[in-house]
Amino acid sequence: MEQSTGQLMEVAQRIHEMREIIGYSTAKMAELTEVDEKTYQEYESGKADLPFTFLHKSALALNVELTELLEGRAANLSSYTVTRKGMGVTTASEDGILIQNMAPLFRQKLATPYWVTYQYSEKLQHEPIHTTTHAGQEFDLVLKGSLKIRVGDNVEVLHEGDSIFYKSSTPHGMIALNNEECTFLAMIMATTEEEQSAVAKHVQAESPEANVYIRPMSEPLIADKFIKPQEDENGVLKSLSFDHAEEFNFAFDIVDEIARKHPEKLAMIHVANDMTEKRFTFKEIKDASNQTANYFTSLGIKKGDRVMLVLKRHYQFWFSILALHKIGAIAIPATNQLLDHDFEYRFSSAGVSAIVCTGDGDTSHQVEKAEEKLGISLAKIIVGEPREGWHDFNSEYGFFSRRFRRTEDTPCGDDPMIMFFTSGTTGYPKIATHSYKYALGHFVTAKYWHWVEKDGLHFTISETGWGKALWGKLYGQWLCEGAVFVYDFDKFDAGDILPMFKRYNITTFCAPPTMLRMMIKQ
Predict the structure, then answer these.
(1) CB 124 within 8 A of CB 181
(2) Looking at the structure, do residues 183 and 41 belong to the same domain, yes or no?
(3) Sign of CA dihedral 381, 383, 389, 391
(4) Do 191 and 239 share a domain, yes or no?
(5) CATH code of the domain containing 297
(6) Other beta carbons within 10 Å of 448
(7) Cα separations (Å) of 476 from 185, 203, 242, 470?
(8) Both 60 and 146 in a single domain?
(9) Do residues 365 and 488 both lie within one domain?
């Protein structure tokens, strides 16, 4: 399938994200898509073009529409859809084959129609027909030209008006004949009656007369000193301006100020993977971040240092990133899925001098391998199971003072605060550095996108190694003085998560569309 580099990376990233949400390993996805694991990893990393068969099998494995993989949007029509001549969505264009989806926006299909064109190839006339398999049943109707099709050990020649119906799990393949291209309609259908029945379940449409919720007015926020939104009579944002941004430090000006004004106000509910629950007030977050700042300072971490945080969804992430904001060290969030070569590149390109790392899994070992390869010595701090050669965060930070004072040298405004490694479209990830003003921008994210309320509880799924965590689990939510809900799971399970909405009275929620659909289906 010939794709532009940008499109290829977007599709590959969607497959990667959906695989992680479901909790499949690359080995499992390789098995489901019937390729070897190395080939699968090349596809998912965007290093190789994605064949149609692989995309189709990936969509089946991930339980999503093929359109969602290709375009990042789900099918949304349920009554009927019209596709004009030549306007089908191209799902593959490879080796003389063009495949177009003729009903990309129709949801809950029992079958998917494809307009397929095979170019004539003299070379293929003298080679065995390449075969493939996939789930379901298939009906092919020749519209123009002639088609030689192999199904299992049988070979048939079809001409205009001829058709064939077969199980798609039987190895099959086809080529155009008679020195001309062949166009045919291919219908790929559900595998079993049970699957058809499940797909065909009635979905009640939302009433067009449903009440519209208008956000109530709330009392002034501490953030109002810095953020000046202008809204219309319905609470819709019209304009936005900022005051005192040059002086702004999120940790001191928002978190610590909320703690002083409302010390017992809930800041976070954290549920560990074993369902252990912890609740933190803003006063407790303030104190813990001050202790962590003093702890980090004792280890030699100072203003301008680059410190990587690989902490999954551990509550210690919030202590650590706020501490770094107070010190002036630059935080670099990263996922625990990185391997030694990933760490090696990031350590070298960002000039990392310290790392705070989860004790779960093999991550700390990968860090050590990268450190050894580079011949450097990092300040290494582990959260969780103690490890030789690492400082033990949980047993050490609590010995330090709960006071950490703001000084004239405290960073703010345009000083660098955080670095992200972006995926980019080619080559290695790129560094994107943001200043202390960055946090202010996510007021809009929380208030006008998430609709976070001052006394609400917001839940964003994302792991802290990704940028989404910072605009969904930290800055905007606490600028709005809402609490955040954190579930530190290893594998997504809708059955575990859904009861939490009622149990904890979660009021707002943000997650990828794929995950939302999985929860709806639960």
Answers:
(1) no
(2) yes
(3) positive
(4) no
(5) 3.40.50.12780
(6) 17
(7) 50, 35, 15, 8
(8) yes
(9) yes
Phi, psi (deg, nearest 5) at residue 392: -95, 100
Position 219 in a domain: no
Task: Single out the residue of 457, 461, 441 nearest to residue 227, CA to CA.
Answer: 441
Q: Provide the 8-state DSSP code for 290.
A: H
Is residue 418 within 8 Å of 465, Cβ to Cβ? no
Euclidean distance between CA atoms 272 and 314, whole angstroms: 8
According to DSSP, the β-strands at 483-487 and 457-460 are parallel
Strands (E) across 304-415 are located at 306-310, 330-333, 352-358, 379-383, 391-392
Q: End of a domain among 198, 222, 256?
A: 198
Query: How many whole angstroms from its chain centre is CA 1?
Result: 24
| Same domain, yes or no: 147 and 251 | no
Considering the domain boundaries, does residue 347 fall inside one? Answer: yes
Q: What is the pLDDT of residues 449-498, one digit of tens each?
A: 999 988 899 999 999 998 889 989 999 999 999 999 999 998 888 889 99
204-261 confidence digits (pLDDT tens): 233 333 333 333 444 689 999 999 999 887 788 999 999 999 999 999 999 999 999 9
Nearest CA to 513 out of 117, 98, 18 is that of 18
Domain range for 418 is: 231-521
Token couple for 250: 């999120």
| Token pair belonging to 296 | 């980090």
Q: Which helix (H) or strand (E) holds 435?
A: strand 430-435
- CA 486/CA 221 separation, integer angstroms: 23
Helix locations, 375-474, DSSP H: 393-396, 438-444, 467-472
Same domain for 463 and 354:
yes
Residue 65, both tokens: 């529409």
Could you tell me the CATH number of the domain that includes residue 59? 2.60.120.10
Residue 245 and residue 186 share a domain: no
**Domains: count for the chain:** 2
Tokens found for residue 337: 């899925």
Q: How far apart are CA 116 and CA 136, in angstroms?
A: 18
**Among 182, 185, 145, residue whose Cα is nearest residue 163:** 185
| CB-count burial class (<10 Å; 0-12, 13-18, 19+) for 250 | buried
- Tell me, yes or no, whether 211 lies in a domain: no
Q: Three-state secondary structure along 52-73? A: HHHHHHHHHHHCCCHHHHHHCC
Report the C-alpha gap between 133 and 69 in whole angstroms.
Answer: 20
Could you read off the pLDDT of 104-142 as tens digits, one per residue? 767 667 788 989 999 999 989 988 888 887 777 899 999
CA distances from 355 to 306, 324, 380 (A): 9, 12, 5
Cβ proximity of 105 and 126 under 8 Å: no
Whether 311 and 396 share a structural domain: yes
